[in-house]
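Tutorial sheet, problem 5. The two components below are modelled jointly, 560 residues in total.
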Amino acid sequence: MMSYEFELESAALTGLAPWHGVPREVAKAPVPSDAARPAQGASIRTEGLSKSYGERAVLHDVNLQIAPGEFVAIVGRSGCGKSTLLRLIAGLEPADKGVIRFDGGARATHSDEIRLMFQDARLLPWKRVLDNVALGLDPRRGDVRERARDALAQVGLADRANDWPAVLSGGQRQRVALARALVHAPRLLLLDEPLGALDALTRIEMQRLIESLWQRHRFTALLVTHDVAEAVALADRVLLIESHQVALDERVNLARPRSHGQSGFAQHEQRILERVLNQPDIRRVA
Amino acid sequence: MSTTSASRSERAARWRNRLLPALLPVLILVAWELASRSGRLSNRVLPEPWAVVKAFWVLAVSGEMWRHVATSTWRALSGFALGGSLALGLGLLTGSLRSAETLLDSTLQMLRNIPPLALIPLVILWFGIDESAKLFLVSLGVFFPIYINTFHGIRSVDKGLIEMARSYGLAGWPLYRHVILPGALPAILVGVRFSLGFMWVILIVAETISAQAGIGYMTMNAREFLQTDVVLVGILLYALLGKLADLLSKGLERWWLRWHPGYQPAYQPAAKAA
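Model answer (structure tokens):
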């Protein structure tokens, strides 16, 4: 593993041309017209998105198209830029080049329709659970607490409304963070490895919860994960980021809820894993 | 049977733990009283404890003590309010704005290295020996602990929380009120506790140098007449007031930081082990 990463780095440093595993057109889908825009999920398109930190390029000319209400997972080796892509779309960092379209328009005007879940829950420890969920809601509206209570109930934590975050378990904290995102009725939910720090059982529970809430609210979901099985379990499409670009776009048409024993699940997982592990870049250097 | 005897021995242990710390002070008091009564300890060095108690009673009944206590407390609190609010304001400013930091911080850090008590000759020249001199010294003494801790408190607020809050639409005053200020509060309260300790030290020195009233004046006056018992009453009063201020700030911490794992009984390691 270590040597792979090293070689990948050195390939990037010596300026080898990035490998195009998939023609760029594959990542594109027809753009929905404004009239046909559904009420819930938003469509996202990136055009020529590039980002580098100093000399080190992270993303180069990324073009992708996400349909309204679609669940897309982004996988890749650590440091491949998958989290950076999410942070660009979230507006936490500016892109060097390229644009992000939200329903065909500018992303910046839709900030309040995008919500982000971080790897750590990032709850405010000095606010009780209910007030954490209500964070960012306009307090002048009278129904803030009811909405927060409703969101907490949806993640199964209605009875913990008056607790301090410090007494919750890691899984419960992430559920509160999920409720905090849902209370804004986002049209795009960005998930930055939110389950990475949880134990295996809690992860499966959270995956099911996220899937059921996604099916209920029909928002567009973009999940960054290092776990290929998780990506296959949840996503309509799995994107692989490699050599600064989208290198694989795998559609997963399995019935939900999915399980590892399901026919086709293992094949998808295997194909993506193979692709991650046998990078042509590495073969070429080796 | 076994459980009741266990709980009984547990209770006995708890009482022992409660009483044991008091053992040494009580022994010292007894030895002191005996030494005074036998004449080995001169009254001019230390009065017997009983004489101190009597002096305390006399001063309390005559109302003289309360007048001095009120004067000293007023000085302490007004100095604390003035210096503390200035420190809080400047600390919030330099902590939040880089430009304010570059403008002010190095100057303030330089001034911090001057002990406030070293300024006494200057202060007497500037203000004479009236109230404003004491107010100035106390304000100066409480300023720096609060300033430095406020500054660092603001700077050490979790950047991840700020990023999260921004992405949830918080900016400006709401961001400050819900995220930055509460995040800095533990550090600010540490500064408050430090400065409360400083407050009394500075006040004691200021009052013993020049005053017309106050606990320091009372003790200095008593010294003139060799009333060591009254001097000791003054010292005891300072100790009690200092303890009171500490308890108050502890209470503030317990209330304002009740979200903090360190202030939640369930999360204390001892309770976990049990």
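Marking note: DSSP finds eleven helices and no strands in chain B. Full credit if you identified this.
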